[in-house]
Structures are given as C-alpha cells and as structure tokens.
Amino acid sequence: MQNIESPSKLESVDRALQLLIILRGGESISVKAAGERLGVAPSTAHRLLGALVARDFAIQDRERRYRAGPQLTPHGEANFSVNQLRQVGRPALQKLYGDINDTVQLMILMGPHIRFIDGIESEAALHVKARMGDLMPAYCSAGGKAILAELGNIELEKIYRGGLTPWPTARIHALPALKRQLATVRKAGYATNFEETEQGVSGLGVCIRDPAGKPIAAYTTAIPTARFQKSMVADHVKALHEAASMTEKGLVAGLGLRG
C-alpha cells in the first residue's frame, strides 16, 4: 500500500521550514508575528515554535521572543571561540580594571556553570584572586546570573531540569527562587553576588551579547566584602556596561572582518 503524506502534514513541515529560514536569518520573532508571517492562528505558530525549541532549533529569550537555537548556529558566523572572546574582550577588561581598580573577570556560560576565561587581579593588599579556567554554578555568580537573566523560562528549565547544583555558600536552592531573582536582575540591568560564590567576596556582573543579541559572556567585579560599599555600585555598574558595550562593538567589527 502506498504511503502518502497528508496535505496537513506537508503544510506543517513547510511552515516549520519557513520559521527555520526566518530564525536562521538572525531575526527574533514573537508567536503573534510568526502566525502573521505564516498566515496561521497564534496557537498553530506557538505549537510549531515549541517543536523547534524542543529540538534546539530555536530558543525563547526573556521577552518571550524566539531566535535561532544551537542547532542552527553550531558553527555559525555569530559564534565566537573562547580565544576570540578573550582577544576581543581584553581591551575592555583592561579599561574596566582601570575604572574599578579591583579584580575584574570575564566568563562564559557552560550549561549550568560559568567558566572564567580571563581576568585581571587587583594589586591591593586585600584582594580577590582572579580565577582562570575554573568552573562554578552560574546561579551563584553575578556574571552567571547576568547571562541567565537574558534567557527565557523554557531554556532555563532545560538547563536546570536536574535541579540546581549544590554549592556551599549558595543562597538559592530551587529554580522558582532563581527565576524570581533573575526577574530582579532584568529590571536592574545588572546582577549581584554577595558572598554567594565564596565567603568574603562580593561583586557585580553585566551580560555581553553577540551581534544577534544572544547572551554569550559577562564581565564581573570581585571585591573583598570588607571593602565593598553600596556607594560603589552606581560607578561600577556604569563601568561594567561600558566594558560590555565596547566588547559588543568589537564582536560586530570582528564579524565584518570575517565576512
């Protein structure tokens, strides 16, 4: 007996392919906009986008818009290696160190962890040692929280489907509590770490995005709690945002050179 696909199934495949083309082109799209582009009801668009998310062809960001997932850009032009990030980010890290005059670090997200890829250590008598190559849970770190705050609930739930990795000084122990704190981070525009990664260390973090708007890294400060003062926050956050902006511009320039 001949097996013939029904027209409805073929239409669904075609619509999914149209969405893949849109996402692969670097656009982010809402359910409503996807429905309008495809000429279907929002419920149908939501179902198609959900299928793409389930297979990592799409991810949902903090504004509940959908953009290209890892399956579409595993080797794409908007991806940057650790060495490229370190190279592009170094001048901004040096400027940040000059502005802060304390330990500053650059980190990336690796699943539920962050990995330190660069840092400049303070020369003060009492200072925090810069980490290189170390891993720690992202939800404890200011930089990790700054990156996680840019992700949508679906992606967060996928990262933490096994629960939060225990950490001795952690103050968050469950995903609902993490989501509440990330909402605060989004509203403030920066994340904090008050002795959550280790006792005696406080810091702030700001996310770095690639040219497609995807969160890929973060800058953080690391200051002994004994020297940390609330009066520092505004100036330090400003310096962190300037460093992130400088790096994002460098990534755009790097894409132009590679293209």
Automatic annotation (TrEMBL):
Recorded hits in SMART domains, A to Z, give: HTH_ICLR
Does Cell membrane show up as a keyword for this record?
no
Q: Which UniProt keywords apply?
A: DNA-binding, Transcription, Transcription regulation
Q: Which residues form the IclR-ED domain?
A: 71-253
| UniProt keyword Transcription regulation present | yes
The UniProt GO MF terms for this protein read: DNA binding
Q: Which Pfam families match?
A: HTH_IclR, IclR_C
Q: Which residues cross the membrane?
A: none
Q: Where is the signal peptide?
A: none
Protein name from the UniProt record: DNA-binding IclR family transcriptional regulator
Q: Please give the organism.
A: Arthrobacter ginsengisoli
